[in-house]
Amino acid sequence: MITARDENEYRLTKYLLSNYDKSVRPARHTSEPVNVTFGLALTQIIDVDERNQILTTNCWLNQIWLDYGLLWNHTEFGGIKVVRIPADKVWRPDIILYNNADSQYNNAILSTNVIISSDGNLTWLSSAIFRSSCKINVAWFPFDEQNCSMKFASWSYDGFRVNVIIQTKEGDLSNYVENGEWDLITMLVERNEVYYSCCQEPYPDVTFHIVLRRRPSSTCST
């Protein structure tokens, strides 16, 4: 049985996507950037590969931006203020892990829905297993401490077109599951802007610094 809400949601989805072009950057004016708030929740340290210099993590990503092409008057659609549609139907920021060490990176991020509010705000929550390059120094093994970074930035847009903003100055560890071999000391976040000699535009990134300390007891037990 089709309810009134189902019918309104169907009409709303058709209304939003009928003349929508996901290849167009959704800024209000072409001279303005799309501001993307970027957050990362670290849920697990899966592996620290000293030999290949790779850190493997399980993460949740949170990206929020405003799309002026996805606005609606909720009173015209049965009071619906939020709708969820597949992420591949809308424009998304091409923010990637720059120090990626995974040849299968395209398969690392789970495809999910985006949450769209009637005011045009989009929230894209996704899950990923990342393999990032990290300079691992075991000179002080088994009492070593490692500082690994994960750098995220747009692949094709400069900061005048896609402006990446940090969500918090500390990474989200609220769902972190402890690792048996490594203690997580801190995860701090910083935003950087790089300028190149060729260009006037800034190239911003959001970098997460993960500090790990090896548990000596884990080496003794093995």
Question: Can you describe what's shown?
Answer:
This protein is mainly beta and 222 residues long. The chain contains two helices and ten strands. It has helices at residues 4-17, 216-221; strands at residues 34-49, 54-66, 82-86, 95-97, 113-117, 121-133, 145-154, 162-166, 182-194, 203-214. The strands form two sheets. It has a six-stranded mixed β-sheet. A four-stranded antiparallel β-sheet has the order 4-7-10-9, with no helix packed on it. Strand 5 and strand 6 (121-133) form a beta hairpin. The termini are far apart. The relative contact order is 0.20. The model has no long low-confidence stretch (mean pLDDT 91). One of its GO terms (molecular function) is acetylcholine-gated monoatomic cation-selective channel activity. Keywords: Cell membrane, Ion channel, Ion transport, Ligand-gated ion channel, Membrane, Postsynaptic cell membrane, Receptor, Synapse, Transmembrane, Transport. It is found in: Postsynaptic cell membrane. Residues 9-216 form the Neurotransmitter-gated ion-channel ligand-binding domain. It comes from Caerostris extrusa.
Short description:
The protein is mainly β.
Key features of this structure:
single chain; 222 residues; mainly beta; 10 strands; 43% strand
Shape: globular
Mean pLDDT reading: 91
Q: What is the spatial order of strands in the main beta sheet? A: 3-5-6-2-1-8
Total beta strands: 10
- H-E order: HEEEEEEEEEEH
Gyration radius, rounded: 21 Å
* Uncertain runs: none
The largest β sheet comes out as: 6 strands, mixed
Number of helices: 2
